[in-house]
Every structure is written in C-alpha cells, then in structure tokens.
C-alpha cells in the first residue's frame, strides 16, 4: 500500500508540475479574488464609521468608488482565474491520456494483463479527467486560504481575539475535513474500479454482439451485464453517500465555526470593545468565511477523488512490461531462419524447431492454447521461461520488440480491421495481396471497390470477407517471416483452395509459418510440424502424416 500511495502522489505531482505556469497564474488571480472578497465587508465597515457616522458626502463617494474598483477587480480576477485553472485541468488530463496510451500501446505489452479493453478506456478517460481536475481546484483551494488569511488579518485589526480565533481555528478545521474525506477517497476508488469493469464488460459484449446473437446467448449476456452494472451502481451509491456525508459534515463544522466567530464579535460590540462599523465588518467577514470553507469542502472532495483516480493511473503506468527491450540486433535484411531450442512457455514443453529461411511450414496444434503460445513466442509477446527462440541466429529475447515485429509479423486469426477504406486497411502492394488472399473478390462485391469505407473492426463486412482482408493486410506487409494463424476458418472450401495457392505463390522464397488445421493450406506447405501436449511429436509432408498418423487425421480431416 505505501508504494501505491507514493506512485499516486507522483502522478498528482506530475500533473500539477506539468502545468505549473497555468496553475500559478490561476492561483494568483483566484487568491486576489478571494482577498478582494474579504476586503468588501471591511470597506463597508469603514464607510459606516467614516462616512455615514461622520456625515461626509465626499468621503462616502470616495469609498463607494473604492468599492466599485474592488468589484471590477473581483470580476476580472475570477474570470481569468477560472480560465487558467480550466486550461491547466484539460491540458493535464490530455497529457495523462497520452502517457496512458503510450503505456497501453508499448511494444513490451503487459498493461492489458488482467484488464478488459473497456477498463483501460475508463482509466484513460474518466480517471485521467479526475486527476486533471486537481489542477482546476488547487488554485481555488489556495485562494480560499488567502481569503481566510486576509479575513484573519482584518479581524486582528478589529480585535485580537477575533483574529486569533480565525488563525488558530482554521488549521484544526482543515485537518478534520481531511479526515472526513478519507472514506470518500476509498469509496471513490471502489466506484471507479466497478465502473471501469462495467465499461469493460459492455465493450466486450458489444464487440461480440454478432456472435452472441448467432448462438442465442443474449439472455446470458444481459444477465452478466445486469450483475456487473448492479455492482457498479452499488459502488456509485456508496460513493455518493460518502460524498453527501462528507459535504454535510464539513458544512456543519464550518457553520459552527462561523457562528462562534459571529458570537464573539457580537459580545465584543455589546461590551463597547469595537465600533458599529467594526461589528458590521466582523459579521460580514464571518459570513464571508462561509465561502472559503465551502471551497475547502469542495476542494477536499475533488482531491479525494483525484487521489483515488491517480492511484489507478499509477497502477497502470507502473505495470511491468511483459517483455523488456534489448540491445540485440537482427540482420538487415533478415533472411528468416527460425529456430526453437528447448522452448518452454506456458503450455509449450521443450519445443525444438528448425525452420530454414524461405520455407513454407505448417504447424498443427491440437490444443489451441499451444498455438497461441507459439505465436506469442514468435512475435515476442512473451519470452520463454526456458530455452531460446532465434531468428537468423539472434536470440529474440535480446532484441527490442519493435524490431522483432518488423522482421516477424504474426497475423492472429481474430485480427480486427480499422475504420477507413479497404485500401487504407491493406496498404502497399495491395493488388497482389488482394489476389493472393481472394480479397479481390471482396473488393469487387463492394459498392466502391477498394475505396469502400470499412466500419470499426470491419463489422460492415461478413466474417469471411473480414478474414480475407486481414490476410491481405498481412501479406502486403511482406515481412521476412510471416506467421499466420487459421486465416481461412470463415471461408468456403473453394475460396480456401484459391487462398492456399495464392499464398504459396506470393510468399515463395520467404519464410512463412501457417498455424492451422486446414488441409487445403497444409497441402501447399513444404513440411508440417505436429504439436501434441505442448511438444513436437512429429513432422513430415501433409499427405504422409495424413496416411500414417490417426491423431493427425483426427485433427485435420475430421
């Protein structure tokens, strides 16, 4: 817990220091505003004593002019203080969103572990905004303190007991407000966590809506979201109750304190220790003190929520990377020789592979987890617990992940498309890649061909169309080593055969690894490797393995 608290404070400090100039400007202007507000009852008291009691019209006009200047200054200072504070808040939130995006998109990965996509979005939006708001409230907290100090000095001028009462009574009041804010901070953090989880579940369900409808699982999905949403609602209500209790308690403390100040001032006036003007000023200052103390209450509540969000942001930003950067160098250009030596990683157990450069290799894994783990090792999404993965005799665990992925492109079977035209999704060398993946047929069927706009994640296309365009994108990249996972599960057998032929032709002389159980794809490979129980249990030609191994036939031909 102490480490988390330290990192959350660090996030808050960075948010403030990054906008120091704007925060300072807002603080100065807001302090001037609150100081001026405190002077208003003092000036009115002076007007009563010097102008009204003295009967001097000239003095009255003078002090009314002074009041006019003060009010003009108040209007100017508040307007520009609010503008500077809001600017600092928005800029700090923006900077945090950039930092969060960089961490989530870092090639070393790790930030997404244990978090749904919606949770990451919630941290990058709601939590970043709450941390940014600290910059908006801090200047007004400083301004409220300035208002209290000016009031205390003015009360000291009127009466030493009144001034000391405000000066000595304010620190304990602020400390009590801080203690009262602790439950709000805890419940705000819980509220944000539940809200983020609900957002993550909602995003997950929406992205899989077509699948859910296809299998008739809408009731189960609704029930899951209802439970998650109710948990989020309960956490929100608990946080709202904590905020209401916090605001009410602080307001009650403030009211008691101001009543004491007014009572002491009244007693002093009745005993003749202070003049009528001084009494009016003292009562006015006592009433004015409600404003800074209400500001303290508001600031304390926002800071409590900001600290809770800063803790969540800090947890994300300090999540260790799944793989670390290295100083190893892959040759340029890479030839594409791939070798596994005793690799153990999750479900993989002592895998040994040697894939010469330029070969088209098929990998059949009965266990889907083994296929995924193999892809993670090849793309350096994770480093082996034991053994090494080499490309062109260079250990991948020593190479920066960005450089690895320039050489080894892993195309997952569930890869999403981006919002934009089909041409923008595929990129360079589009015509050859579209033909090899049979995605040229997709383009021909679309109203504007390759200029047709594809919606988010390619949802405007059918599953088979989306899969072919994703394969075209992977082929167009022309990586030295291309790893493709089940690229034809949503297409018919005729199209699958066409893709197999086109892929083998386009990738001739380039290292290509097809992790699949498709007989059409396996038939065009130079060699097939069989993974069973996380180990290599056989290799050979597709026809040979289909003839000699019952387990291979079961995996590929069933």
Automatic annotation (TrEMBL):
Membrane topology label: Multi-pass membrane protein
Database matches in InterPro entries: ABC1_TM_dom, ABC1_TM_sf, ABC_transporter-like_ATP-bd, ABC_transporter-like_CS, P-loop_NTPase, Type_1_exporter
Name of protein: ABC transporter ATP-binding protein
Keyword terms: ATP-binding, Membrane, Nucleotide-binding, Transmembrane, Transmembrane helix
SUPFAM superfamilies: ABC transporter transmembrane region, P-loop containing nucleoside triphosphate hydrolases
Domain of life of the native organism: Bacteria
Lyase among keywords: no
Record bears the keyword ATP-binding: yes
GO molecular function: ABC-type oligopeptide transporter activity; ATP binding; ATP hydrolysis activity
Gene3D superfamilies tied to this protein: ABC transporter type 1, transmembrane domain, P-loop containing nucleotide triphosphate hydrolases
Organism: Amycolatopsis alba DSM 44262
PROSITE patterns with a match to the protein in the record: ABC_TM1F, ABC_TRANSPORTER_1, ABC_TRANSPORTER_2
